Amino acid sequence: MKKKALNGLPTHVAIIMDGNGRWASRRALPRFLGHRQGVKALKKVVRYASKRGISALTVYAFSTENWTRPKEEVDFLLDLMQKTFVAEIEELHREGVRIQLAGDRASLNEEILKIWHGAEEITAQNQGLTLNVAFNYGGRQEILHVVQTLAKQVAQGEIALDAISEQTIANLLYTQPTPDPDLIIRTGGEMRLSNFLLWQAAYSEFYVTDVLWPDFDEDDFERALQDYAGRERRFGQVLAKEQ
Ligand code: IPE
Ligand code: IPE
Ligand code: MG
């Protein structure tokens, strides 16, 4: 049964793209082939988000904890990310997509940063979908970065301690100026955030599907959007009809 629509389309959708390794293992293939197949799913999803008129999409591509994986897998993921962006940037630009890296830049090497800066610069004026790629991203590291930035500003007398607000914190997050995600989708069935958007997720709707990321397609995405449309968002309030 289709749920009654309470919400429209989410403005910002965030996705934890999980399950690449399992997708490969189930086919007796090496894990890296799952990651390669995952890129295909990402391309589909970016296009579908644009087509549906979603304003922003944030995708979790590599976490600060993913560095602890075997070196060959980490190296493969870094290389895959670079090759994918080099190959796709022109087309994404033509489609009006604005790309932004959401993650810790300080610990990334020059070569990777050059690719990101290039992609961000070329697409900066685009008016279509904003694509935040959460790469070398960790929610706790992001909050630490905000705390350090603000502490430095206070120490240097640039802002007063009392002037720190939720808004000043939000303004320094890696995803800014994108508003908090309305909907967070996780593929691969795990019911956890895995350090994703800890601050931003305060009132996001959470949708988990068992579909593994390489298999996630337009129909699966649409199912998540329809499910979101039927959710009642309360933000801690008592709704008028219940008073
Ligand atoms: C998600 O898939 C991709 C990244 C974390 C980079 P996984 O590699 O975590 O796949 P599973 O969860 O082991 O199946
Ligand atoms: C979350 O998936 C990170 C990405 C999808 C990039 P993980 O596979 O790293 O998360 P855990 O280890 O299952 O919590
Ligand atoms: Mg995983």
Textual characterization of the structure:
There is one protein chain. With 243 residues, the chain is α/β, with parallel strands linked by helices. The protein has a single domain, classed as Decaprenyl diphosphate synthase-like (Undecaprenyl pyrophosphate synthetase, 3-Layer(aba) Sandwich), CATH 3.40.1180.10. 41% of the residues lie in helices and 14% in strands. It has helices at 20-25, 31-52, 71-94, 110-123, 139-155, 166-170, 218-229; strands at residues 12-16, 56-63, 98-102, 130-137, 183-186, 205-208. Strands 3-4-2-1-5-6 form a 6-stranded parallel beta sheet, sandwiched between helices. Strand 3 (98-102), helix 4 (110-123) and strand 4 (130-137) form a beta-alpha-beta unit. Helix 2 runs parallel beside helix 3 (71-94) and helix 3 packs parallel to helix 4. The longest helix is centred in the middle third of the chain and has 24 residues, at 71-94. The chain is globular and about 55 Å long. The model has no long low-confidence stretch (mean pLDDT 96). The chain binds 3-methylbut-3-enyl trihydrogen diphosphate (IPE) (2 copies) and magnesium ion (MG). The site of one 3-methylbut-3-enyl trihydrogen diphosphate (IPE) has 10 residues, from helix 1.
